[in-house]
Amino acid sequence: DEIHQSTGESEELEEEEEFDPTLDLFADAQEHPEENTKYSLTEPTDEQFEQLLEILRNRIEDGLGECIYEIGLGDGCPDGLNPEDLAASKATLETLASAVDCDLSLLREKQGEEGLVAEYLIRRRPTEEDFTEVRVAVLGNVDA
């Protein structure tokens, strides 16, 4: 009986660890297609911004200091954003990146069905601890 109880507790812990904050971000995107995740960076509310910030922190941590973020992709809708929405999304992504002490670099832009899709590399800024000393010994004649 004691074994069964401890197993039940571990199952509950596993369920809690599997929580994905992206699922909560726009849980009603199916009911409200205009709030699709492809537009999540255009004008996020304060709550959505905090959720996006937490998602970015997790992705940076999982990617060992970097991740690739695509703007203009959504769930079940055509890819691409118009130039105004793309610029607003980029501005939000820049704000998110600087909030987690990261740099943002454009990798590529491609044409989607409804506009542009942009791919960005987000990389943590290096610190003093990130550098290692490398010494190279060279053998041979100077004239070689």
* Poorly predicted ranges: 1-36
Strand order of the largest sheet: 1-3-2
Outline the biggest β-sheet. Answer: 3 strands, antiparallel
Distance between the termini: 79 Å
Strand content: 15-25%
**How many strands appear in the DSSP assignment?**
3
Averaging pLDDT over every residue, what do you get? Answer: 76
Helix content: 25-40%
Radius of gyration: 22 Å
Overall, the morphology is elongated
Number of DSSP helical runs: 4
The helix/strand order is HHHEHEE
SS content category:
alpha+beta
List the helices and strands and how they pair.
Blueprint: H1 2-17, H2 21-25, H3 46-62, E1 66-71, H4 83-99, E2 102-111, E3 116-124
Antiparallel strand pairs: 1-3, 2-3
Characterization of the model:
The protein has 144 residues and is α+β, with helices and mostly antiparallel strands. Helices cover 38% and strands 17% of the residues. The protein has helices at residues 2-17, 21-25, 46-62, 83-99, and strands at 66-71, 102-111, 116-124. A three-stranded antiparallel beta sheet has the order 1-3-2. It is elongated, with a radius of gyration of 22 Å. Mean pLDDT is 76; it is low at 1-36.
Précis, in short:
The protein is an alpha+beta fold.
Features:
single chain; 144 residues; three-stranded antiparallel β-sheet; 3 strands; disordered N terminus
